[in-house]
């Protein structure tokens, strides 16, 4: 119980109001924004969308957007799979033509 009291004590609040505390908060915020930029980039979106974590109302909807929006990367993959099927079909027709000849 002492640990919990120490966490919520006035000393911790004083720490976060000091210049060192502000530096820690800024570092954590930048790390969080960088992580979202990487996630957006890997999903195929513009990485700068990760900077929206600094807009308070929008930051709550970013995970929902990532979860339910169609990813550009997935659209590209579906197109490539369709193209692969067409190539296989064309190849099969070509093989049948060669066997018949």
Topology:
Layout: H1 2-7, H2 10-16, H3 19-43, H4 56-59, H5 62-68, H6 72-100
Q: How does this structure look, described?
A:
This protein is mainly alpha-helical. The protein has 6 helices and no strands. The protein has helices spanning 2-7, 10-16, 19-43, 56-59, 62-68, 72-100. The longest helix is centred in the last third of the chain and has 29 residues, at 72-100.
How would the global form be characterised?
A: rod-shaped
Instruction: Tell me the structural class.
Output: mainly alpha
Helix content: over 70%
Question: What's the assembly state of these chains?
Answer: single chain
β content, as a range? under 5%
What about the largest sheet? none
Could you give the order of the helices and strands? HHHHHH
Q: How many β-strands, per DSSP?
A: 0
Low-confidence stretches: none
Cα separation of the termini: 87 Å
Mean pLDDT reading: 82
Give a short synopsis of this structure:
The protein has 6 helices and no strands. By secondary structure, the protein is mostly helical.
Give the tags.
101 residues, mainly alpha, 6 helices, 0% strand, rod-shaped
């Amino acid at each position: 119980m002492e640990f919990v009291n120490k966490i919520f004590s006035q000393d911790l609040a004083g720490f976060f109001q000091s210049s060192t505390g502000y530096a820690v908060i800024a570092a954590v915020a930048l790390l969080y924004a960088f992580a979202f930029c990487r996630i957006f980039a890997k999903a195929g979106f513009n990485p700068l969308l990760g900077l929206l974590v600094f807009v308070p109302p929008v930051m709550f909807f970013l995970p929902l957007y990532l979860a339910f929006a169609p990813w550009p990367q997935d659209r590209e993959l579906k197109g490539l799979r369709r193209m692969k099927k067409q190539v296989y079909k064309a190849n099969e027709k070509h093989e049948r033509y060669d066997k018949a000849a």
